[in-house]
Structure formats: structure tokens, C-alpha cells
Amino acid sequence: MAGTVQESPTEPDPGGPGGSVVTSGDGGSTGRVGDRVFAGLSVGSAVLIVIVLAGVAIFLLEQGLPALGNSGESAYGKDNIWAYVGPLLFGTLLAALIAMIIATPLAIGVALVISHYAPRRIATAFGWLIDLLAAIPSVVYGLWGINFLALNLVPVYNWMGDNLGWLPFFEGPVPNSGRTMMTGGIVLAVMALPIITAICREIFAQTPKMHQEAALALGATRWEMIRMTVFPYARSGMFSAVLLGLGRALGETMAIALVLPPSVLVSFNLITAEGASSTIAANIANNFGNASGSKVDTLIFSGLVLFVITFAVNFLGRAIAARGQVKG
Amino acid sequence: MAKSIDVSDLNIYYGDFLAVEGVNMTIRARSVTAFIGPSGCGKSTFLRSLNRMHEVIPGARVEGKVMVDGQSLYDPGVDPVSVRRQIGMVFQRPNPFPTMSIYDNVLAGKRLNAKRMSKSESNDLVEKSLRGANLWTEVKDRLNKPGMGLSGGQQQRLCIARAIAVEPQVLLMDEPCSALDPISTSAIEDLIHELKSDYTIVIVTHNMQQAARVSDETGFFNLKATGEPGHLVEFNPTKKMFSNPDEESTEAYISGRFG
Fold this sequence. Notes:
The complex is a heterodimer.
Chain A: H1 20-64, H2 81-117, H3 120-135, H4 138-163, H5 181-205, H6 209-217, H7 222-251, H8 254-259, H9 280-287, H10 294-327
Chain B: E1 5-14, E2 17-27, E3 32-36, H1 43-49, E4 60-68, E5 71-72, H2 80-86, E6 87-90, H3 102-112, H4 119-132, H5 136-139, H6 152-165, E7 170-174, H7 182-195, E8 200-204, H8 208-214, E9 217-223, E10 230-237, H9 238-243, H10 248-254
């Protein structure tokens, strides 16, 4: 990632000034054993991760693919498996999209405050505070979303329904619980915020000083300087930060399972209870306990779809970040 | 366009640390003024205080007066951004904007003024600025290539073109040749001679021969002792500085004898 520290390899001291005759042989061989152990450990961990990932993929394929032919009862009453997984996938993507639309500008703004606007001491404290958001368990976000955020958003939704109702997104009617797609998206936005902010602020802070000074010396204001130097420098990093945040939003389970009513349908109406399709992850959490037989396969298949989507998003993010580094 | 600078009793601080103490000098318009002195004596700090660039470092501040053509730079009502638009700066290491083409680099400062320019106006300004920086013939066929693709000396001249494109009153140069080879250095020095007729130029250099070659007046900065603030030892016409300086320590420094 952005903050990787390059350490020069510490070379073993070849024979200190005193007692070198006695210890040099021992010292050398100890060093080599240490190297071997460390190399073995790191290669082992790397291989293990690949094996685990492959294992998950194989499990999902083996258990999920048989569900491709499921219909009717085993597809939760839908005609075929795609009629069941499709709306869930739609819900997953829609909630994540709302989350990204809200979180991206917010995260970039917060990252800029930390890296360029706030005095250093306040910026550090503020940075910790944002990082703490990542440490809150997602079930707590869910409870907060359902018992506080959703209820408090009802007047806002009512206003949106009254004034922006001509847009299909805000048609209403607004449920009294406030448990809507919009609420789910907002909760996800808050959860994705720390990841995006952390990556953005690292990259913003790495903008070469000399380019920033070049802009300032031309008479750029701070904002103009940021537009001329920081954003072009950080563009690919910002993009991959957003994709990593998207990865989190796509896979989030508990918060969505609590906030969104468990329904399976396709609707762009963001502020009604009827319009809120659940997401894949939340749907699995809600139904897996009661599922049996081929229904289990159906749920695992939906998990496979999520796995593929999340994997693709992360892969894309890394690829773009890597390309940007070579170029910049 | 070119303006003179009057500095009186200027103290420059980084937080509580007094970096430069009690500078008084008058920099004449349409002349080249060079600052020499050992590392860490505050030449660059002083130079950066002339267009309020030192304020970029948190905690930096000044006491005293800097007057440009009768207008105080440090009046409470003066915006550092507008100061920097009038007093351009060229840095030690060439720093063209890496994501911009040569063309856009030259126009970067002008575009900050938010005024829309027609295509032909922009073209004229780019050509004029690049000609002014003696770079036009070398880059005129590749204006849309990135500025980072040029050699170090060309990049530095691109930075000078970028600085003069906004038509500043003063041009500050902070060791503009220290990262360049002798041929590029001589190209920049020739350029300084030409620019003198239009601009007031202040240059910091570690190279005494360079100061002697390009400047009309020279200021020698030194530390009284390690840990003490830097101060201006002597400020005189360059000829006098290099032949018959008033201060013994100036002569010691110029002839390579320290202490």
C-alpha cells in the first residue's frame, strides 16, 4: 500500500573488533539460520494465503454451482436462480453505489483537512478519530443505523419525498421506521469512510513538496495548489482507495442485515420500505440459519457471485493503483 | 514593471527560533542582487521572506519591514497569494508540474488569474515566455510533451518561463543552478543577464564566481557563531565585494579562508 516503508537489509557485522576470532563462525551461521527461518516463514505464509483463497473459491464453486439449475421452492419461490440472485446483486450494488457517492467526496475532504488544512496536532488527533470509525464492530453500526439514524432520517425523507418526489429515486411513501435503501447506503458510507480517508490522506501527504511550492510561488491559493499538484499526483491512488472502500461496502453484512427489510426485488426507489432490496451478504445472514437442502446451495451460489464481484473490484483497484505508480 | 525592495530591521523566526536577525538593505530595480554565504546562514530563508514563501512552513513569521515600491509586504491587509503573483520564484531543483505539458506548465500561473484567454493569446504568451527563457527553439516542436521529459537545464529554464509568464515585478532565484551542469548553468547565467533589463532579480548562490559574474550587488550572510542567528555582514556593489570588501570576514569567505 501507500505507506510501505523500505528498510535496508541490516547486514551482519563481519567480525567485530574484539573477540572476532571466537565468535565470527557462530555469528555467521546464526545469521544464516535466521535468514532461512525467516524466508521459510514468509514463503509459508504467502503460500498459505493463496491456498486459503483457492480453498474458498473451490468451496464456493463446488457447493454453489449445483444451484444453477434451482427453481421454485429451492430458489425461494423464484422461477430460476438468477431471478433470486439478480435482485440481491442489484441491491448489493445499489447500496454500495449510494455509499460511494456519499463517502467519496466526504473522505477526500476529510483527508485534505488532515493532510493540508488543519494544524498538525489537530490533524493527527482527527486522523485517529477517523481511524476509530473503522474499529467499531459492524453490528454496532447496524444498531445505530436502525435505532438512531433511520428514525432521525424520516423527516429528511419526508421532505425529499415532498420536494424531490418527481425523481423516481425519491418517490416514497416513507416508512415510519426509516429503514430504506438510502439509510443502508448512508450506514455503509460511514463504514467505508475510514478506509478511503486513510489511503487518500497518505497519498495526499506524499505529494512532493517542491511541486506544491512551485504552485504556491506562482500565486496559487491553497485550494488552487491542491488542484494543480495534489489531485493530479494522487488521482490513481484516490481511485483505488474508492475501489477498496467499495469492496468493504459490497461485502458488509451485519449492518445491512439489521437496517434493510429482507426483501428481494429490483427498485430504484430509495426511500421506501417496499423499494429496499436486501444485499447478498445480508440475505445470506438472514436466511442461512433456516435453510436446508438445495436452498443452502442457492445461498452459497449467491455468495459465489459476491465473491467474484468483490474480487474483481479489488483486483481492479490494485491494478489501477499499480499503473498510476509506474506513471507518476 | 520592475520594482525596488527596501528591507529594514527584518527578523525572521521559525517558531521561537530566530533564524535571521536585523537585515537592512535596498535592492535596486532592474539589477541583479546576489546573496552568498555558508550553508544555514539564512540566505534562502531571507529570500523566501521576500515573497512570503517562508510562511508555507508552519510557525514561520517575520518582524520588521519589507517594502516593495512603497507598499509593505507584511501589512495585515496584504494577501500572501497576491504578493507571490507579483514576486516570482525559481527553486533550487527544477520543478515543472509533472502531469502538465510544456505548454500548460508555462501557462499554469497565468491560468490562476481565472481570466479566460483566447487560443491565440495563450499561444503568444507561451512563445514570448519561452523565448524570454531562451527555450523556445529547443521545445517549439514538442510543446504538448510533458515538461518532465526535458533535461535538467531545460526544465529549469521552463520554470523560469513559467515564472516570467505572469509578468512579475521581481524574480527570486534560490540557487537556480546548483542542480545543473556547467553548460546549462552558463545558459541560465546568460538568461539572467537578459532578464535584468525587465526584472529585478535576486539570486542566492553557493558559487562565488557565479555571484561575481551575474550580479551588480552582493550581500554576504554569515552566522556569528554556531546556534546564533544569521545576519547580513556586508552589502555592497559586487565589484567592491570581490576586490576590496569593507569587512575582513567577507574577504576571508570570498578568498576561501574561514573563521
